[in-house]
Amino acid sequence: MSAHLIAASRTSQFNLRQDTRFWRATSMFVGIGLLMLVLMASLPARAADHKGDDTTPALNDDQIVLTLAMEDHITAKNPLVHVSIDAAFQDAQQGKVRSEVMAALKKLDSKADWRLTNFNRRTDRSGLVQWTVNAEARMDADGLSGFEERAKKSSRGGFAIRLNNVNWTPTLAEREAGMRALRGQLYKAAMAERDMVNDAFGPRAFRIGLIDFVGTGPLVQQTRAPKAEAGMMRAMAADASFAPQTGFSVSEKLRLKATVVLIANPVMNK
């Protein structure tokens, strides 16, 4: 008898759990269904609200892509002067010769900011120390007058100053100023293109969406001497009778390109 009662009790508990799970699942599905009905009912109202909003922009992908280019020439204000000093002396005179090197550079041009760019030291068979010092400085163009004569006067036996080259290449600051001016011209050209497009398309207004200076080729194009000419220049420099040219300022061409994207202003829905 007790065994039958226990079995009946377990069967009743199992049926109760099954009924509970069934009602829970049913309640969950009913709740999801009600939520979907509420959401579907609210969609027409939201669509009507957006339809009556005059400030909602429409999707727009109308654009015009064009490439603009500008070029100009720049000239160095002051030339870059290269000199070399060869000195031979006893080892004990190194301190004196070092001071003599700096004093000789100041005699060439006291206003110039001389910088030592290379130094080579060696000892010959006789025991003399030999120095070769290379220096450069930006000088005022008027300072080139009589420069080689001043170099000869500052030279003596065992101490020789030689003018190697006069380079009229513009400085980095001069190049940057030239590029800045070209960018200004391109900005104005881009605005002129925008105005022309707006005149052509009437009420459809375009604006400048992008000006890209990257990936459009070399920004600065310099004129370089051919290899044959460069070889001839080296041969002339090796000749002791060759006198470096000091009186001509050569212009350098700057070129700048930009990709400009004109984008149509969004059209408002009404």
Please give a quick description of this structure:
This protein has 5 helices and 7 strands; from the N terminus they run H-E-E-H-E-E-H-E-H-E-H-E.
Description:
By secondary structure, this protein is of the alpha+beta class. It has 3 domains: 1-52; 63-75 and 171-264, Translation Initiation Factor IF3, CATH 3.30.110; 80-167, Alpha-Beta Plaits (2-Layer Sandwich). The chain contains 5 helices and 7 strands. It has a 4-stranded antiparallel β-sheet, covered by helices on one side. Strands 1-7-6 form a 3-stranded antiparallel β-sheet, with helices on one face. It starts with a helix and ends in a 6-residue tail after the last strand.
Descriptive labels:
four-stranded antiparallel sheet, elongated, Translation Initiation Factor IF3, alpha+beta, three-stranded antiparallel sheet, 7 strands, 270 residues, 3 domains, 42% helix, 5 helices
List the helices and strands and how they pair.
Blueprint: H1 2-51, E1 63-74, E2 80-89, H2 94-108, E3 115-123, E4 129-138, H3 147-153, E5 159-167, H4 172-201, E6 206-212, H5 227-238, E7 252-264
Antiparallel strand pairs: 1-7, 2-4, 2-5, 3-4, 6-7
Helix proportion: 40-55%
What CATH calls the topology of the largest domain is Translation Initiation Factor IF3
Count of the separate structural domains? 3
Level-1 CATH class name of the largest domain: Alpha Beta
What form results from the Cα inertia axes? elongated
Number of helices: 5
Helix/strand order: HEEHEEHEHEHE
Largest sheet: 4 strands, antiparallel
Mean pLDDT: 77
Q: What's the CATH architecture name of the largest domain?
A: 2-Layer Sandwich
Total E-strand runs: 7
Biggest sheet: strand arrangement: 3-4-2-5
Strand content: 25-35%
Q: Helix/strand-derived class? A: alpha+beta
Q: Kindly provide the radius of gyration, computed on alpha-carbon positions and rounded to a whole number of angstroms.
A: 42 Å
Point out poorly predicted stretches. Answer: 2-8, 215-244
Span of the ends, CA to CA: 84 Å
